[in-house]
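Researcher: Structure prediction, please.
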Amino acid sequence: MKLPTLIQTVTELDEVLSRPTATVVETIKNLDGDILLLGAGGKMGPSLAELAQRAITAAGINKKIIAVSRFSNHAERERLQALGIETIACNLLDANELQNLPETENVIYLAGMKFGATGKAAETWATNTFLPGMVAQKFRNSRVVLFSTGNVYPLTSIKFGGSTEDDATNPIGEYAQSALGRERIFEYFSRTLQIPGAVIRLNYAIDLRYGILLDVAQKVFQRQPVDLAMGQVNVIWQGDANAAVLRAFEICQTPPAILNVTGPETVSIRQLAKKFGAIFQVESIFENAEADTALLGNASRCHQLFGYPAVSLQQMIEWIAHWVKISGPTLAKPTHYETRDGKF
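Model: Predicted structure follows.
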């Protein structure tokens, strides 16, 4: 897959994010039934739906992609519809609206609440833990790929390459605890109702409009201090993360398979800021000091199954730096990657 040297517009960005690889096309071709995306109006949902739709076209098959969300962004909904993706406006926590959704063989569960969770504990737990049980009962005859987060792991030593799927979970803060609750509730219904599934522990997806790289690049470009409290992170291009999510239908099982999805590197925030400083020709400013621990995931299992990400860290850095230089639009949603107490 030939990648552009730089990305100039949102239209170009959407196209790059949703390019299907040959392996994704093959997965979609061999997958029986349509695909329903729950919570498809967030940061990753639209590009994931578009990736699946383009894979269907490339495979030359007849299959529906159905995107479900509240769709407060009407323009995004219209864009998806123009691509041939069916859309349904739905409040998933409304039992009647949920039950009226079409029975679909394959379900991707993206719904969740993270930012703003502090001070809204009850809503966070309802969305992240109660809703997965409702969804599992509704789609008991489906395969389900469920989005989770690397935040279910504890902070670990930066020397050991991050938590693997076999390591113990120990989430910090109510958001992460509720995310582990999401996994546990889904696992319960997967076992009792024999729902084949896969749980995706993701951290952190990167788009030019949001993500850790953008957070750091903006700080450096604006001559603001870069916080080193969380001195090391993992990142993955959103398109590569979406490809892994679609391919996860291949590993659905009961009880659900667990899969870390992120990039292969442990990325130093200090070195990342210095790289952006060199590109912008400014001196990076820092505050706080690196700790001996960080929130890190080891995605070796994912890379063994599906191969390494197609977009390298260096490519992401160059794209992000250019996007910042040309004042490309952003979602204005900082990741708060530096948070160590779990309060988002």
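Model: The mean pLDDT is 96.
Researcher: Thanks, that helps.
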